[in-house]
Design goal:
The protein has about 325 residues and is of the alpha/beta class. The protein folds into two domains: about 170 residues, Alpha-Beta Complex (Quinone Oxidoreductase, Chain A, domain 1), CATH 3.90.180.10; about 130 residues, NAD(P)-binding Rossmann-like Domain (Rossmann fold, 3-Layer(aba) Sandwich). Helices cover about 30% and strands about 25% of the residues. The chain is built from ten helices and 15 strands. The strands form three sheets. Strands 3, 4, 5, 6, 7, 14 and 15 form a seven-stranded mixed sheet that branches. A six-stranded parallel sheet has the order 10-9-8-11-12-13, with helices on both faces. A two-stranded antiparallel sheet has the order 1-2. Strand 1 and strand 2 form a beta hairpin. Helix 3 crosses helix 4. The longest helix is centred in the last third of the chain and has 17 residues. It holds the Pfam family ADH_zinc_N.
């Protein structure tokens, strides 16, 4: 890439951020003006086009996950490179990037290590680029790395109308899998069906229905991002030597669990993955984003932008997400 001719005086002086001033409810989020960040060695300064809203940020805001306050949430975003730190050779100003590995993306400008950003293809919009990284990478690692699904396998996912759920269903169907999913309302069931799910179940009694669908066998894998409320039912849905992939806790964290129970249930496997363990190097990052952008541009994957909120209304976005009133991906737009 060509070297940037941008000088320090060309960088913005100020930025707006939405931050949690202390641990608490959505009312602790406030939007303030701060000094704009300056890219350090190996970093990009990005003018935010859109930032993704994710459950982990509600945990950080509320104090479930310890952070230092005041705290600017957000690891996911897309935008235009407006500044380069020293030793950045792979990007130039004016290019569009996306990332799931930045910090403080609830802002008009954010910093990200160049090694953790990817170029956005011309065919992909800013909103698509911001909506894809975290949920797209999650869906990709779940079905390709945590438990690689083969054509013809039957799998169970939860929250089929959510952001990860819709992406996961579409990618699984493109793979040739049979997908059972759950939703909480008839309206959400229609969304899950539109994403391609073969069976859409209510949460109540879902394990028994999974057994019926699979002729008593159970499924080879459960992808469970709901957590506390579905955990036991997910285990009940698994075939012998099946794999329980607990990748989130939208309903709350799973309480301590006796692993001996896995033996009683048929030698089950259980794992608790998260995105950082599946973006370990440039090769892995390139593989995942290349396949995701490819699925998006080919039409195998369509993203559902469930809502866009002004930066100043991040609290409302958190309320809607925690209240499970949303489908698809939520974005903040400065």
């Amino acid at each position: 890439m060509t070297e940037s001719t941008m000088f320090e005086e060309d960088l913005p002086d100020a930025a707006k951020v939405t931050r949690a001033r202390e641990a608490g409810g959505s009312d602790v989020l406030e939007t303030v003006e701060v000094e704009a960040p300056t890219p350090g060695p190996g970093q990009l300064l990005v003018k935010t086009a859109a930032a993704g809203v994710n459950f982990i940020e509600t945990y950080q805001r509320s104090g479930v996950y310890p952070v230092e306050y005041p705290f600017v949430p957000g690891a996911e975003g897309a935008g235009e490179v407006v500044g380069l730190g020293e030793n950045v050779e792979s990007f130039s100003t004016g290019q569009r990037i996306a990332t799931a590995e930045a910090s403080g993306t609830y802002a008009t400008h954010f910093l990200v290590d160049a090694a953790k950003a990817v170029l956005v293809p011309q065919e992909v919009s800013d909103e698509q680029a911001a909506a894809l990284p975290l949920q797209g990478v999650t869906a990709h690692y779940l079905m390709n790395s945590t438990y690689r699904v083969s054509p013809g396998e039957t799998v169970l996912t939860h929250a089929g109308a959510g952001g990860v759920g819709q992406i996961l269903t579409q990618l699984l169907k493109a793979r040739g899998a049979r997908v059972i999913t759950t939703t909480s309302t008839p309206e959400k069931a229609k969304i899950a069906e539109a994403a391609g799910a073969d069976y859409v179940l209510e949460y109540q009694g879902f394990a028994e229905k999974v057994r019926q669908i699979t002729n008593g066998e159970g499924v080879s894998v459960v992808y469970d991002g709901v957590g506390k409320d579905t955990f036991v039912g997910s285990l009940d849905s698994l075939a012998v030597r099946g794999t329980m992939v607990l990748f989130g806790g939208a309903s709350g964290q799973v309480p301590p669990y006796d692993l001996q129970d896995l033996n009683k249930r048929g030698g089950l496997y259980i794992t608790r993955p998260s995105v950082p363990w599946y973006l370990r190097n440039a090769e892995e990052r390139t593989w995942r984003f290349t396949e995701l952008f490819g699925a998006l541009t080919s039409g195998d994957l369509k993203l559902d932008i469930g809502g866009t909120y002004p930066l100043e209304e991040a609290g409302r976005a958190h309320d809607d997400l925690e209240g499970r009133r949303t489908t698809g991906k939520l974005l903040l737009v400065p």
